[in-house]
Amino acid sequence: MSDIIKKTMLAGLGLMSLTKEKADKLVNTLVKEGEMSKTEGSKLAKELVNKVEENKTLLEKKVEASVKKIMVKLDIPSRKEMNELQRKIDASQKKERSK
Length: 99
Known about the structure:
Number of helices: 4
Number of strands: 0
Largest sheet: none
Number of domains: 1
Low-confidence stretches: none
Strand content: under 5%
Helix content: over 70%
Mean pLDDT: 81
Structural class: mainly alpha
Distance between the termini: 79 Å
C-alpha cells in the first residue's frame, strides 16, 4: 500500500476518534474488497492504533501546557499552592488553640 493512501486514510479517519475496533473494521473492509492482503491489513491496523496513541499523548501534553499557561495568566493558584496555604492555616490554628 502506498504512503499516499496511508496518509489520506489517516487524515480522513479523524485520528482522535479512531479505536482499535474501528481500525480493524476499516482494514477488514479493505481486505475483503481486495485493496490489500491480510498481512498488509494487520500491519496497517497496528500502525493506525499506534498513530492514534501517539497523537493522543501529544494532544494531552499540549492541553496540559495550555491549561497551565491559562492558570498562570489568570493568577489561579495550583493545588500545590492551595495545599501549602491550608497547611499554614492549620498550623496557625493549632498554635492559637495551644495558647
